[in-house]
Amino acid sequence: MKICDVCGAVLDKDETCIFNVPKENAPSIADYSAMARGEMSHAEHQVLVGRWGLHNTEALGQKAIQKMREFADSAWGKKVTVFKI
Ligand SMILES: [Zn+2]
């Protein structure tokens, strides 16, 4: 099992990180409906946002990047559920 060295996500078989995508494909897009259904906690959502954010830092300030780092570090190397729209 390989871990993304940018965000700490478990990598796919082809060793690509699903969080290394543009905003319109961010894996956290489906979280809001999953949270509304009670299938995802806010903390789990923050991990997905943090992982994506660390791959997309160009629009973020230093404080935001620090937050993304904290969210991602809270689940470094752990598998998290990613919901599909
Ligand atoms: Zn990654």
User: What sequence of helices (H) and strands (E) makes up the elements?
Assistant: HHH
* Helical coverage, percent range: 25-40%
- State the domain count: 1
Radius of gyration: 12 Å
Bound molecules: zinc ion
| Oligomeric category | single chain
Strand residue percentage: under 5%
N-end to C-end Cα span: 26 Å
Molecular shape: globular
Stretches where pLDDT is under 50 for at least 5 consecutive residues are none
Instruction: State the helix count.
Output: 3
The number of E-state strands comes to: 0
The class by helix and strand makeup works out as: mainly alpha
Major pleated sheet: none
How confident overall, as mean pLDDT? 95
Short descriptors:
38% helix, mainly alpha, binds zinc ion, single chain
Explain the overall architecture.
This protein is an all-alpha fold and 85 residues long. The protein has three helices and no strands. It has helices at 31-36, 42-55, 62-73. The longest helix is centred in the middle third of the chain and has 14 residues, at 42-55. It is globular. Bound molecules: zinc ion (ZN). Residues 4, 6-7, 9, 17, 19-20, 51, 55 line the site of zinc ion (ZN).
How do you describe this structure in short?
Helices cover 38% and strands 0% of the residues. With 85 residues, it is mainly alpha-helical.
Topology, pairings included?
Layout: H1 31-36, H2 42-55, H3 62-73
The protein binds zinc ion.
Zinc ion (ZN) binds next to helix 2.
